[in-house]
Write a structure and sequence with these properties.
Layout (H helix, E strand, L loop, with lengths): L5 E4 L5 H12 L3 E6 L12 E4 L5 H11 L7 E6 L15 H11 L1 H16 L3 E6 L12 H21 L4 E8 L5 H6 L11 H12 L10 E4 L4
Parallel strand pairs: 1-2, 1-4, 2-3, 4-5, 5-6, 6-7
Helix pairs in contact: 1-7, 2-4, 3-5
Protein name: SDR family NAD(P)-dependent oxidoreductase
InterPro entries: NAD(P)-bd_dom_sf (IPR036291), Sc_DH/Rdtase_CS (IPR020904), SDR_fam (IPR002347)
Keywords: Oxidoreductase
Length: 229
């Protein structure tokens, strides 16, 4: 099957990223995935790796250009999966550097990737941006103010994209997972009820839908993907 459209997927070497890339490839997409040098082997077979630091604007623009560089498969979707979690104690006990580190990990790559890709999406006639926030962004819990704030900021940013680019045929929606059932999360919480966690494949199916023409009327949505949690 010859791909006729391209998706730019960040965070592709993680549990959710691997499931998402696999879903897009199975649906016939060309997938470009920016990765840190030396980690391309962790991507699903068939993905096109581009070495990049997603906190560096020049690297991100290069990755977006590669994604948009196949005329027969124009860039139609951007999926922002890069992020991270760190607890930090109560707010008054949290150093500002730790607070800002969560913004750098969760918000900056989403901003840079989306900003770099938007001109390509517009030039191709439109497309879809999907961002990943968190249940914590709308339902905070104590001890992680930086993470909670960053994930709430992703929601605000996605809303801004949806409003600014609506008339240019670019949509932007956000998924909000609860705890994702990945090996890393199981290792971190071995005594948790893993049956209440949502699987990467389930979230990937929602992301693929939001990137597809089937969700064409939908923009600015904040979609919970909590599973049974």
């Amino acid at each position: 099957m010859t791909a006729t459209r391209t998706a730019l997927v960040t965070g592709g070497t993680g549990g959710l990223g691997s499931a998402t890339i696999t879903a897009f490839l199975a649906d016939g997409w060309r997938v470009v995935a920016p990765v840190r040098p030396g980690t391309a082997g962790r991507l699903p077979e068939g993905a096109i790796a581009v070495d990049a630091d997603l906190t560096v604007e020049a690297d991100v623009r290069t990755a977006a250009a590669v994604a948009a560089g196949e005329p027969d498969a124009p860039l139609r979707a951007v999926v922002n999966l890069v992020g991270g979690y760190a607890g930090s104690g109560l707010i008054a006990d949290t150093p500002v550097a730790e607070f800002e580190a969560m913004l750098a990990v969760n918000l900056r790559p989403t901003y840079l990737t989306t900003a770099a890709a938007l001109p390509h999406l517009v030039a191709a006639g439109g497309g879809s941006v999907v961002c990943v926030s968190s249940r914590a962004g709308v339902s905070p819990f104590p001890g992680a103010a930086g993470y909670v704030t960053a994930k709430a900021a992703v929601l605000g940013f996605a809303g801004a994209v949806a409003v600014e680019y609506r008339k240019r045929n670019v949509r932007c929606n956000t998924v909000l997972p609860s705890i994702i059932d990945t090996p890393a999360n199981r290792a971190a919480q071995p005594d948790a009820d893993h049956g209440r966690w949502v699987s990467p494949a389930e979230i990937a199916a929602v992301i693929l839908f939001l990137a597809s023409d089937a969700s064409a009327p939908t923009s600015g949505a904040q979609i919970p993907v909590y599973g049974p949690a």
